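Changelog-adjacent note: as of this version, every example in the card shows the full chain rather than a window. The one below runs 323 residues end to end.
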Amino acid sequence: MAQNVTFNRIYRILVGIRHVNGSFITNSVIGSPLHMELNVDESYSSSGTSFNPCKLNLYSISPEAIAALNEENASIRVHAGYSDVNGIAVPIESLSRIYEGDIVKSDSQNDNQGNKVTTVTCQEGWFDCRDSMITGTEITTVGTPYDGFIRDRLAFHTGYPIDIHYREASDKVVKKSGSYHGKWYTAMDTVIDKASNTKGKEVISKLCWFYHRGRVHVTDLIPTNASLSEVFNIHIIPRSRIKDSITAGSDSSEYDGYSPVGLKTIKFRMYLEPEVSLGDVVELEPSARDSLGGSQYIVTGLNTQLSLDGDRWDSVIKGRLLG
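Full-length structure tokens:
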């Protein structure tokens, strides 16, 4: 397995234009064996969306690729993984998508070794937050379920499909009528805050929303089996895939004055696992070394660090215990 994760790295980056209907028109393709370095931080956010920033260094790419990266309103889709898994060849066109983002800046310079390095910075959902406006005014009336308002009204004003991963979402209803206009993401922030339930209540919830791989997701920052309606996937993580020691702790964050005391957390670095996504569940393989195996954690943070010819082809996973 070590040879597989060290020497069989491949990637494919699509550069193009993402349209409001979700389609992606590819104008250029960049891929192995050209060297590249990537660092992506994806996470739940307690306020607004985190935008999942990405920094990408591309080496010796073609002038046509550079032009595509500098096109107005250009976006990228990054696919990465391994050329074979358990001895089975993986076509480069079949690689899992590990990131999708809008290009905020692209700049090409020669390094001290004479290589042309193109540095690209991206934010996920950047153009949507910049450009999407509520046409006219959207009004909420008392008793309207928040999830219905998000799906049926606010969704019309964004270029992304919206998934709500919260079992009791339909029970969260408007207590006081209101109206929304202007930037769609500002309305989304306000609605999510109003739908949260963090003060003086028997059942605590703190909702959040974020862009992730071409969709908008709404979920709970305080994950429990009772609150989450679904998960994307469950991944059993073999100990042989973990590179460093595992950090276990507890979450001391406060959400509107409420702190989920004793909420266990976990953090570990492993060889790149392209299938793991925010909101997925990871479960460590049991081990005699600790008692962490068998417990399930919601992935609330995902740091992807890639260097085609370097020492990193890694996923750093943060999770909260699924209670």
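Structural remarks: The longest strand covers residues 97-110.
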